[in-house]
Amino acid sequence: MNYKLILPCLLLLLGINQKVVAEPKEFSAEYTGKFQGLPFKARALRKLRKLEDGTYRLTSSARAMFITVSEVSEFAMAGDRVVPIRYLYQRKGIGKNRDESALFNWLDLTVNYKDNILDIQPGTLDKLLYQYQLREDVRRLMSRQATRPGSESLDLPLLSYQIPDDGRLKEYRFRITGQELLNTPLGDTPTVRVDRIREDDKRQTTLWLATEHEYLLVRLRHAGKNNKMFEINISAINHLAVE
Prior knowledge:
By secondary structure, this protein is mainly beta. It has one domain (3-240). The protein contains two helices and 14 strands. The protein has a 14-stranded antiparallel beta sheet. A hairpin with a 2-residue loop joins β10 (168-184) and β11. The longest helix has 18 residues, at 129-146.
């Protein structure tokens, strides 16, 4: 599908003002992961690439001893907004294998998710792309906060995203909860801490975004049921110039 031709129609259909904005910067970032109670580490890789047709592909993959997980999100830019096109998820290894996909049809405002057709609204994202949008939204809010004289309190609005998940649309909500200096392989790294808000307080997810590296994810920590902990930390980053 040629999104260079379709995007002008999407801009009108979704009521998006066309703006001249910076293109997403290509990057690759490597992470190491730790699973509580398991005697091995995982390695993860995230990449953002611009494709020949002008759209983008964001990928995330993780590999441990007997498990591989991969996610792919293809998207377009409409003004300053990301517009998901296709999402793929695959898990292989110990336990049950799992495949999942979502195909977005913006002309009909629907998504084909797990063989179900769901109605969506402008701004709906997928389970990988929301992390990119979250990064951009945190950057915008922190930049706005910095221009307010004498304002040191992070009294910022919640961030909310509609995501196809588990056969239906779910709302993912986040709150900026502070700023922390982390010691990482990149050096002492100033970060913004973001917590996911859940009604189920038995699970907690926290992200740390590096302010001096364009708010790239440098740490993610997830505590699941029975307090089982999973954490990934950045080990290397490579920014690539967009051609």
